């Protein structure tokens, strides 16, 4: 314990902050576009952003989907001596899993695999793990080992080892997922990594925060145990959770040019680092895209790249405050497919505030008080 806090003092600003740099890399979509394979992939593995929030799997499994636009991952290690893995820090799920040497799926063969026989601290749990995807699944088993995050060893951490993986995973650069939602969501009752961090007193405060750099491949970071004032400006708006399973909050409305265009009367939204877009009900998303001048094309909403400077802001009104996204934040540009907005349909009544939103607003996930804090990123 003394070693852990001593390391915190070196890493931190003025308190015990454990920071993990997040690398921004080419997305699966960008890599497939370069190879001329995107259209084939898109049709073969359709994107279903709401599958991970399907209530049928809320406890029995960890639903995920093939988000081809995910671009951030951090590095952790598992075992003694440590084996390194690139993981998506996902606030929309609760389990940690990585590929294993027992997996021969194409998705495993181009990723790092955990070898239990080389770790002196490995213990097999004996239970199976089944993670449902939008277009397939991952199967494997559960085990215990030391998981090192930001230099801090989390001992006896339960995690999943894949034996099969859905084909679309081979196009993603991350090896696995580290879930940061609530324990009630966890498959097989596995204790999430951050819960063990709190139980082992490895963090000074029972919260973590996420900064996603909008314009650089470097600079993004997830901070455990506090907030980093270097990454936000102005006041923090604290929003109480409407449900402490996901990081779910109430949005009052969505406006363009002062007019309500979606979420009239309020709606529910999940702040999710594991989703790249802002996702909502199809009719609402279509209305937003129409208001900003986008047209539907092959499943995307596209705009003229020359019009970005004249496109209106989109504002999410949350807890009495305005969280505004300029066009420069919600339009993504591709050298192969032009410009498209970051608003995607697929929900029924639930919204997802994914990376398009989080890049603009430093997001703090407070377990002690069951709140999300939002502040302008810088």
UniProtKB/TrEMBL annotation:
Q: Tell me, what's a Pfam family for it? A: Asp
Decide whether keyword Hydrolase is in the record.
yes
Which part of the chain is the Peptidase A1 domain?
72-375
Signal sequence region: 1-16
Which residues constitute the catalytic centre? 90, 272
Q: Which GO terms describe its molecular function?
A: aspartic-type endopeptidase activity
The text of the family note is:
Belongs to the peptidase A1 family.
The job of this chain, per UniProt, is described as: Shows particularly broad specificity; although bonds involving phenylalanine and leucine are preferred, many others are also cleaved to some extent.
Q: What is this protein called?
A: pepsin A
Give the organism, scientific name: Betta splendens
Gene that produces this protein: LOC114845438
């Amino acid at each position: 314990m003394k070693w852990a806090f001593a390391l915190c003092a070196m890493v931190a600003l003025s308190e015990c902050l454990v920071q993990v740099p997040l690398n921004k890399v080419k997305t699966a979509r960008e890599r497939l576009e370069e190879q001329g394979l995107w259209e084939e992939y898109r049709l073969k593995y359709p994107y279903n952003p709401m599958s991970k929030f399907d209530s049928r799997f809320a406890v029995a499994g960890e639903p995920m989907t093939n988000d081809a636009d995910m671009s951030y991952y951090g590095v952790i290690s598992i075992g003694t001596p440590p084996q390194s893995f690139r993981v998506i820090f996902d606030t929309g799920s609760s389990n940690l899993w990585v590929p294993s040497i027992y997996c021969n799926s194409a998705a495993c063969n181009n990723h790092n695999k955990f070898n239990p026989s080389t770790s002196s601290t490995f213990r097999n749990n004996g239970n199976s793990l089944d993670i449902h995807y939008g277009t397939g699944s991952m199967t494997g088993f559960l085990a215990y080992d030391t998981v090192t995050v930001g230099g801090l060893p989390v001992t006896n951490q339960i995690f999943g080892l894949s034996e099969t993986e859905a084909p679309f995973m081979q196009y993603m650069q991350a090896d696995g997922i580290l879930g940061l939602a609530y324990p009630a969501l966890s498959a097989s009752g596995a204790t999430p990594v951050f819960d063990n961090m709190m139980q082992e007193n490895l963090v000074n405060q029972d919260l973590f925060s996420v900064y996603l750099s909008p314009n650089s491949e470097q600079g993004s970071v997830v901070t455990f145990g506090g907030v980093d004032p270097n990454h936000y400006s102005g006041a923090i708006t604290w929003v109480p959770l409407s449900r402490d399973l996901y990081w779910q909050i109430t949005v009052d409305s969505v406006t363009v040019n002062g007019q309500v265009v979606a979420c009239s009367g309020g709606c529910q939204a999940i702040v999710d680092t594991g989703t790249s877009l802002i996702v909502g009900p199809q009719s609402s998303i279509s209305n937003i895209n129409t208001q900003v001048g986008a047209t539907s094309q092959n499943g995307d909403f596209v705009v003229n790249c020359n019009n970005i400077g004249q496109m209106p802001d989109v504002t999410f009104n949350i807890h009495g405050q305005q969280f505004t996204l300029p066009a420069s934040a919600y339009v993504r540009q591709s050298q192969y497919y032009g410009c498209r907005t970051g608003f995607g349909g697929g929900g029924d009544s639930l919204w997802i505030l994914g990376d398009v939103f989080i890049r603009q607003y430093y997001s703090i996930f407070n377990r002690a008080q069951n709140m999300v804090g939002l502040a302008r990123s810088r």
